[in-house]
Write a structure and sequence with these properties.
The structure holds 2 protein chains of 2 kinds. By secondary structure, chain A is mainly beta. Chain A is built from 2 helices and 11 strands, in the order H-E-E-E-E-E-E-E-E-H-E-E-E. Helices cover about 10% and strands about 50% of the residues of chain B. The chains are: A mainly beta, B mainly beta.
Chain lengths: ~270, ~200
């Protein structure tokens, strides 16, 4: 959380500083409003391996079985939002803020790339006295919905043909709205155990924060309609317990931004 | 003809009732970080065992059932079958260690649960230990000291059906084999005992 606060304060302070410079500058500043949307696949690890049994699915040429948890661990974040952007310092530097809805999906399943492996794994469901219960599970998926505030700084660079290159840094603070855990069992009769599995997996923390960078190209004009295509590199989660199921580390993605000039201009 | 149809129907019903958990029968070998030749001690039913026979690792392999429990002639035998790696290209000899006890006669594998958290002092005259090499030469070990510790036995239930008993523990002993002192050390096991490897006859 300290890292999050530091980065957040850095961007906010930078914004204030830029705003102060802007107040002293007599040049016309451009204001834009727009909508954006994107998707970021994120490299992740299991939050807790202790409730999943290892398996012997890996096999080498000599027939020697090596232990492995051949699991497929996936996490991605998709989002849409609205934002307002203010350009400063000869329209080269901007600060922006807005409102963003994000959907984060984490899943754990069996890696079925190897044809001789089963399509399920064993989850340790319960241990009472001398009884140990496993459930055969094909996949666990956890979907969480967030509302968040992104804060960004964008630096416009040189023009390339019809477009203009830019670089971006930002931080996003999210508040969880809802979470749902879905379980696909090997045996459909075990569906009644879904809530129990959800309790084992746990829930994500109510808040999370993400730091991200970006590089993109803007087509159009600051004084008119423009479209930007952006690569989000990197996208780093600053907080833990993002998902009860998997722990997202870092990744990248793509974003589309459509902007219009705001009617009022700063003088 | 009716008798054969009835037998076929009965066999089919029995096969449907005996749900096979093929994945649970496989061995999952996870090296012990402190003794990489041996599997770690675990309680997941990974169907592995290992020990040092003198200095050579004696571990479960992929061709022999790691442990069989055989109840016959008023004796119960726990047969650990694997390979002793002598460092040669061929991988070593087949070896099995049998712990035989006379005061415990389970009729079903579920009755093995009574061994939970129990230690057998191998010097007890009720217990015998045999070493079999290459499935042919069987030697009786004269125990000097040692024990077989069943640390934890668990009824394993998968999707609400009992499948097997997971048997986990340790063993070590010093013995005279053909009048030569031999040391078996750092023995550990984590195996599943079910209808496939529990024999009563």
């Amino acid at each position: 959380m300290n890292k999050t606060v530091f980065i957040f304060l850095t961007i906010v302070c930078s914004g204030f500083l830029i705003g102060k410079i802007h107040a002293q500058d007599k040049e016309t500043k451009q204001k834009l409003i727009g909508i954006e949307g994107g998707i970021d696949p994120i490299y992740s690890e299991l939050t807790n391996e202790n409730y999943i049994r290892g398996d012997a699915s890996m096999r080498y040429y000599g027939g020697y079985n090596e232990s492995a948890k051949t699991l497929s661990i996936l996490f991605h974040k998709s989002y849409v939002g609205v934002k307002s952007e203010l350009f400063l310092i000869s329209n080269k530097l901007s600060i922006s803020g807005g409102l963003r809805y994000s959907r984060m999906v984490g899943s754990v399943g069996k890696d079925t790339y190897w044809s001789f492996t089963s399509d399920y794994f064993y989850l340790l469901y319960r241990q009472e006295n001398t009884n140990t219960e496993f459930l055969k599970i094909k996949e666990i998926t956890q979907i969480s919905h967030y509302i968040g505030i992104p804060l960004e700084i964008r630096l416009m660079s040189r023009k390339y043909y019809a477009g203009q290159l830019y670089f971006k840094a930002g931080v996003e603070l999210n508040c969880k709205l809802a979470t749902k855990t879905e379980v696909s069992f090997s045996n459909d009769d075990m569906k009644s155990f879904e809530s129990g599995v959800s309790d084992i997996v746990g829930k994500p923390h109510p808040f999370n924060s993400i730091f991200y960078g970006g590089i993109g190209i803007m087509y159009g004009k600051l004084t008119g309609f423009n479209v930007s295509f952006e690569a989000t590199v990197p996208s780093i989660f600053l907080t833990k317990e993002i998902s009860g199921l998997v722990n997202p580390i870092s990744g990248g993605g793509i974003k589309l931004i459509i902007q219009f000039p705001n009617k009022s201009k700063q003088q | 003809m009716k008798k054969y149809i009835l037998l076929l129907a009965t066999a089919s019903l029995m096969m449907m009732g005996c749900k096979k958990e093929t994945e649970l029968k496989k061995s999952v070998f996870i090296s012990d970080p402190e003794s990489p030749d041996l599997p770690i001690y675990s309680e997941w039913g990974y169907n592995t065992f290992g020990a040092y026979y003198e200095r050579a690792p004696f571990v479960s392999n992929n061709s022999d059932i790691p442990v069989k429990v055989i109840v016959t002639n008023n004796l119960t035998s726990f047969v650990f079958a694997g390979s002793k790696d002598d460092g040669s290209y061929s991988g070593g000899d087949k070896l099995s260690i049998t712990f035989q006890i006379s005061n415990f006669l389970p009729q079903e594998y579920q009755q093995l649960m009574t061994l939970n958290d129990s230690t057998l002092d191998l010097k007890n005259p009720a217990y015998k230990v045999f070493i079999t090499t290459n499935n042919s030469v069987k030697d009786t070990a004269t125990i000097l000291s040692g024990s077989l510790y069943f640390k934890r036995l668990q009824n394993l239930i998968v999707d609400t059906k009992q499948i097997e008993v997971i048997m986990s523990g340790y063993f070590e002993f010093k013995a005279l084999i053909k009048n030569n002192p031999v040391s078996i050390s750092e023995g550990r096991f984590d195996v599943g005992i079910g209808s496939d490897n529990f024999y009563v006859y």
